[in-house]
């Protein structure tokens, strides 16, 4: 049985802020923020271009070095966050639809989660592969090629490629890091961090190759393991933050799983007796302020709205509880307010949420 | 500035001596014996020239060894054999357990023509580089280009009479 649920498109109106603007559809951004977003987009396009050249160069000289393979995979994966950022930026500005009444602002969160999952999976694989190589004592073979009349060991060419692979991302990473803080954009921040830390990957890869050159067969696998562990660490940290965001957790800091200080600032500004719940949709914060902490609609109202499926309705927020009661036949009991406990105003859909934000 | 230049020159000179072999194949072969495993009953002209060039590069005497491919592979992996040769195409399945040298000429398998290679022990990068230098000499390249599909009898016919499972040396 298909039923109209409370909320839905009506929520657009509920989302009207005090100044009457529609905050659910394309929240207006200050000119400065918009300019920063445009700049971030341009940087991400440049990142994709440079990473593309790096992936091609590294792929051409990769050979059978495990450290090179790990660095190449990391560079390939580094293309995910900028691509996700650009996609998310397009999606988050889309208007809400009947099927997605809250809009697409969380496209960024989803993108963040996906890139974190990819990072964690690939990091885990690289570590596993490196350990396996060490256990099996596989000796990496790096051949040589004739170049300008000389037989040149490919390891030197790989080192040159690794050196090239760290320069553009490190420069772009530092530029993006500043913008990420201004825009409070986690995807951009993750991307910037990965880029800025690329020199470590390059250094580890070069150390692995230098080890091979000196006859230490294990150096390559150790370097690959270090790179893999770094990728895994990034992936797991980002998974933790992105999962919290997708689970309607309180807004988190850019670079840690700690709750963002802005939440405390809002809470401190509220008069006594008001309760705050805050969550994050992409780069935006949504808060719900109630006087009564409960948003339980009560069984009577739930049954009137959903019959047998009343158990699914766990939270209702309404602009005017009495008006809503009168509008629903069979609910109003003049002596009893069925909407007792229903939050007044706001945008609450979660029943069990962290009351502390 | 002088120190930087000196350091760069030193680095380049040192780099010329690299890479080294983890298992020391170069040191064992240099001025001593190059053990060559034969993967074919008949050694072609190109392969013979390649063996001679590699032996000359290391100032070593070639010792040919005939046995079944799996035995030769095991010997290569243990370091008893230094070079596997004999109509080895570049897409050989053996390359998963051995390192391929640079190509020198072509080898015809059925209707298809493939690049001709030899195999050395994995990870012995210094040795492989020297082998590649030997196989890249103009004499080998010219011979490989003109050799065609002509094959020569193996140097020692007595080796061909040896049972496939048993390793037999031929000098």
CATH class of chain B: Alpha Beta
Number of strands of chain A: 6
What would the principal axes of the Cα set say about the shape of chain B? globular
Number of strands of chain B: 7
Q: Architecture of chain B, CATH level 2?
A: 3-Layer(aba) Sandwich
The separation of the N and C termini of chain A measures: 35 Å
Region (Disordered) (chain B): 145-171
Biased composition (Low complexity) (chain B): 160-171
Family (chain A): Belongs to the cation diffusion facilitator (CDF) transporter (TC 2.A.4) family.
Main location (chain A): membrane
Please provide a written account of the structure.
The complex is a heterodimer of chains A (357) and B (171). Chain A has 357 residues and is mainly alpha-helical. Chain A has twelve helices and six strands. In chain A, strands 1-2 form a two-stranded antiparallel ribbon. In chain A, strands 3-4 form a two-stranded antiparallel sheet. In chain A, strands 5-6 form a two-stranded parallel ribbon. The radius of gyration of chain A is 26 Å and the shape is elongated. Chain B is of the alpha/beta class and 171 residues long. Chain B has one domain: 3-Layer(aba) Sandwich (D-Maltodextrin-Binding Protein, domain 2), CATH 3.40.190. Chain B is built from seven helices and seven strands; from the N terminus they run ααβαβαββββαααβ. In chain B, strands 1, 2, 3, 4, 5, 6 and 7 form a seven-stranded mixed beta sheet that branches. In chain B, α3 (45-57) links the parallel β1 (33-38) and β2. Residues 149-171 of chain B have low confidence and may be disordered. Chains A and B meet through β1 of A and β4 and α5 of B.
